[in-house]
Write a structure and sequence with these properties.
Blueprint: H1 14-41, H2 52-104, H3 106-111, H4 118-136, E1 171-175, E2 178-181, H5 186-190, E3 200-201, E4 204-205, H6 207-217, H7 220-277, H8 281-303, H9 307-313
Antiparallel strand pairs: 1-2, 3-4
Helix pairs in contact: 1-8, 1-9, 2-4, 2-7, 4-6, 6-7
Length: about 325
């Protein structure tokens, strides 16, 4: 068995030297290009090959950031809906309390011998009905009726107080697996039929239209209805609207909380992205300068190879 004398010098052929130096140049060029790109973009990872594990992490972080940014957008939109709905419902309550005062004043007007005031009171309630009907058709920025459900209706109620909406109240996804209703349907706020507020259909008059009719009639029986069953129906309708206001207020509070959580989470994800993706610019510039120096040195060293030897290798 032939042994190798460790004292013997190791010789390299010109081709082997050229091979090593050209490979070194290629490596230096790749490193130089990578550093130049980092300095140019400000990113430590510009392609999966730069850092496969880091690139996979970036994909996951970006996907999470996209989701929570969407939750922020959804919450902001939902908050706008709820603010508009709350404003409309609170205005409805203000008008209903005015009607309540009018109805409660009827017996006093009769006892004082002021029955002639009944037509004026009827006109006031009729105006209140028109105002509430307009509020029931409140729309949001895109023109969609707030109380129209998830259908395609352009308004929630027609001029006779008939509900034109469909489906459930619209919702917004504000967190993983969490949806919040951003409105209520018309019937949930204004009721339906004779127990509702808006119907003006003969034979099925709503609470307000029935009050107007009884006030206009002015007979002892109709006035008794105003003081009795009409007032009871009105009070029940007010309770329904108050319940709707409470629901909308609670939903608005909840969506504001989820909005804050989504904003906080998105900010944390953005920081994580920065820690993975953002390059340390001072370090990158220093490394680039060192790499440029190394590359120039490698170019000079390669140029010292004899032309014949390099040509043989190539």
């Amino acid at each position: 068995m032939t042994s190798i004398d460790p004292s013997m010098p190791i010789t390299y052929s010109p081709a082997a030297v050229a091979n090593t130096m050209v490979e070194g140049l290629a490596t230096d060029q790749n490193n130089l290009a990578s550093l130049e790109q980092q300095v140019s973009t400000g990113f430590a990872i510009n392609s999966p090959s730069d850092n496969p594990e880091g690139a996979a992490n970036l994909l996951q972080l970006n996907a999470s950031l996209t989701r929570f940014t969407q939750y922020q957008t959804n919450a902001a939109d939902g908050k706008g809906w709820l603010e508009a709905g709350n404003g409309a419902v609170n205005s409805v309550l203000d008008v209903l309390h005015q009607v309540q005062s009018i109805v409660e004043s009827v017996s006093g007007a009769q006892l004082a011998g002021n029955g002639s005031e009944l037509p004026s009171l009827a006109e006031q309630v009729s105006s209140a009905l028109s105002e509430i009907s307009n509020l029931a058709n409140t729309t949001y920025e895109n023109g969609q009726p707030i109380f129209g459900g998830t259908g395609n209706a352009t308004q929630a109620y027609d001029s006779s107080g008939n509900y034109l909406g469909a489906g459930n109240a619209p919702t917004r996804t504000v967190a993983p697996g969490t949806q919040i209703a951003v409105s209520l349907t018309g019937p949930q706020v204004f009721g339906t039929g004779t127990s509702g507020l808006l119907s003006q259909t003969s034979g099925s008059l709503g609470v307000l239209s029935q009050i107007v009719s009884d006030l206009q009639s002015g007979t002892p029986a109709s006035i008794s209805n105003v003081e009795g069953s009409d007032l009871q129906s009105l009070n029940a309708a007010i309770q329904t609207v108050e319940g709707a206001a409470s629901t909308l207020g609670a939903n608005q509070q909840a969506i504001e909380q989820f909005s804050a959580q989504a904003t906080q989470t998105a900010g944390a994800l953005q920081q994580q992205l920065g820690s993975v993706q953002d390059v340390n610019m001072a370090s990158a510039i220093t490394n680039l300068q060192l790499q440029q120096t190394a590359y120039q040195a490698a170019l000079w060293a390669t140029s010292q190879l004899s032309t014949d030897d390099l040509a043989k290798y190539l």
